[in-house]
Amino acid sequence: MAAPDKTRRDETTQDAPGVPARRAALKLLDAVQRRGQPLETALHNATQGLNHPPDRALAHALAAEVLRRLPDLDALIDSATRLVLAEDAKARAVLRIALAQALVLGTPPHAAIATVLPLVDGGPRKLVHGVFGTLMRQGATLPELPTLPAPIVERWTTQWGAGVAEAARRSIAAPPPLDLSLKADDVAHPDGTALLPRHIRLPAGAPVVAAEGFAEGGWWVQDLAASIPARLIGAGTGRVLDLCAAPGGKTLQLAAAGWQVTALDIAQSRMGRLNENLARTGLEAEVVTADALKWEAEAPYDAVLLDAPCSATGIFRRHPDVLHRSGPRLIAEMAELQARILARAADWVRPGGLLVYATCSLEPAEGEAQVEAFLTARGDFAIDPALPDELPDGLPAASRGWVRVLPGMLADVGGLDGFFICRMMRTG
Ligand SMILES: C[S@@+](CC[C@H](N)C(=O)[O-])C[C@H]1O[C@@H](n2cnc3c(N)ncnc32)[C@H](O)[C@@H]1O
């Protein structure tokens, strides 16, 4: 008889159909919750063993639904166990996936449980099976509006009021619409609603790659709020520095508005996407892969756009992982990095030129407080208030002249990502 093969077999090849995608979802959740990685970043490693693109998409969807619904899934699990399972117990993680399948994605319960049980082989199989069965027999359901994690509710209620925290629940309950930024007024594009010039809003889930004008490169996907920073620079023919530019939504807008753009970012892989976006749209920019904390500009720019790295809590609708990994420590780290980049960016603006600072964050430390501290340190800059015709109807500038986009704003037309945007002019 041949000796048994002691080499470790690929875990996915011995799995029944459907199990590898759940295994990958478990890895994704571990990467986000234990290691604080963004879901998108974890995707490549966690789904490496999956050979079918639909499996990758399913693993991603499962992890995203668990993160969107985490407090509600945990409340159900806790209601059906006598001893509370540890936060990081594998049984809890596997139950979250099974319940998200059955209660959110509409997977038949028998398939939802059968595809996760192999993830706890040699472990608490009976417990997982028992808890899931109890909840299904009880006809368990999730609340209509997802419950946000308690620290988020507390922080946003303190910062913006209970109404905004509640609006955030409503805005994460349904997939957000899809916004397109147009390269020019007359490009081919799918039918939708225009909330600003060169903008089209499509319903959630609209197919993108097959849509009219995609192949011609006449438009790109960009949340309407994310398009405001470049809009505040307007059109022109001079030189603009797009700092922290990848994957390039704002670079494309600036190039399409006529500027000679230098697009700088530290991340090589994201710069690859920026180059692809330039190639698809036929727009041009000078592309620099460098650290903004070390790079030096050869000459000042007419405008600098700093779309700074941040906690990204404003994009929680599309990226629910931020709700679980962007806490006070990350926010403080990001605020410090932003202040350092902002100080350098300011020196690259010519006198009379513009500096636009933006973050997709709902944290004042990365927005209002950052700009106030900057203005205190730099008497040669003043806020240049955003004007009503630069913003969508229903989104006024704040009294200080900057733009603060919060959950609940423009809710009747599908809402916006959370953002902070401030245009400043170098006065001296
Ligand atoms: C909010 S994203 C930029 C999004 C981009 N502006 C767009 O519209 O597509 C922030 C970017 O900052 C970059 N970044 C972080 N630290 C940096 C640094 N020290 N120097 C340059 N870029 C940096 C990240 O790689 C990331 O691409």
Automatic annotation (TrEMBL):
The cross-references to CDD domains, in alphabetical order and at most eight, read: AdoMet_MTases
Q: Where is the signal peptide?
A: none
Q: Which InterPro entries match?
A: MeTrfase_RsmB-F_NOP2_cat, MeTrfase_RsmB-F_NOP2_dom, NusB-like_sf, NusB_RsmB_TIM44, RCMT, SAM-dependent_MTases_sf
Q: Does the keyword Methyltransferase apply?
A: yes
Q: Which domain of life is it from?
A: Bacteria
What GO terms describe the biological role, i.e. biological process, of this protein? Answer: methylation
> Where does the record place the region Disordered?
1-20
> Basic and acidic residues bias located where?
1-12
Residues annotated as binding S-adenosyl-L-methionine are 244-250, 265, 291, 307
Q: Which UniProt keywords apply?
A: Methyltransferase, RNA-binding, S-adenosyl-L-methionine, Transferase
Write out the similarity annotation: Belongs to the class I-like SAM-binding methyltransferase superfamily. RsmB/NOP family.
Q: What is this protein called?
A: RsmB/NOP family class I SAM-dependent RNA methyltransferase
Which organism does this sequence originate in? Sphingomonas donggukensis
